Structure formats: structure tokens, C-alpha cells
Amino acid sequence: MNMQREQLQSSVHNACIVRKVIADGEIEFEKFLQLLAVDFVRNNQHTVLPFPFKYLREYNEMT
Question: Shortest CA distance to 53 belongs to which of 35, 40, 38?
Fold first, then answer.
């Protein structure tokens, strides 16, 4: 039982976070898509947070 718990904690720790964007108006998909395109990754880690989410998080922390 303990082995299963350790495996689950490890897999949850390494899991990718899935985010969903919900627009409250018309979305310009092509412009939005460019913001999600990153050409760099962190060495031996998950990719960085896409810029829209990073900036929204920072703005939210400031307010």
C-alpha cells in the first residue's frame, strides 16, 4: 500500500497542468496562438508557463 502511495505522489508531482481558456467575447485565435508558441524548454523539466498565463498570474498577484 505504501509503495502505491509513493508512486501516485511521484506521478502527480510530475504531471502536466492542463489549462483551459474561456473567452467572454470574440477571440482572435491566430494572435492568441502566437502567444502560446515557445521555442525553449527548461532542461530536464516541464516547459515554462505560456506567457498569457504567466502575465495573468502576475497581474492577479499585483491586484
Answer: 35
Whole-angstrom distance, CA of residue 48 vs CA of residue 38 = 8
> Are the beta carbons of 36 and 52 closer than 8 angstroms?
yes
Q: Report residue 43 as a C-alpha cell.
A: 532542461
pLDDT in tens, 3-39: 566 655 555 566 666 777 787 888 888 887 777 776 6
For residue 32, give every residue at least 6 positions away whose Cβ sits within 8 Å of its Cβ, in sequence order, or none.
21, 52
Tell me the pLDDT tens digit for each residue of 31-48.
877 777 766 666 666 666
Q: Which residues make Cβ contacts (< 8 Å) with residue 16, sequence separation at least 6?
A: 46
Q: Structure pTM?
A: 0.36
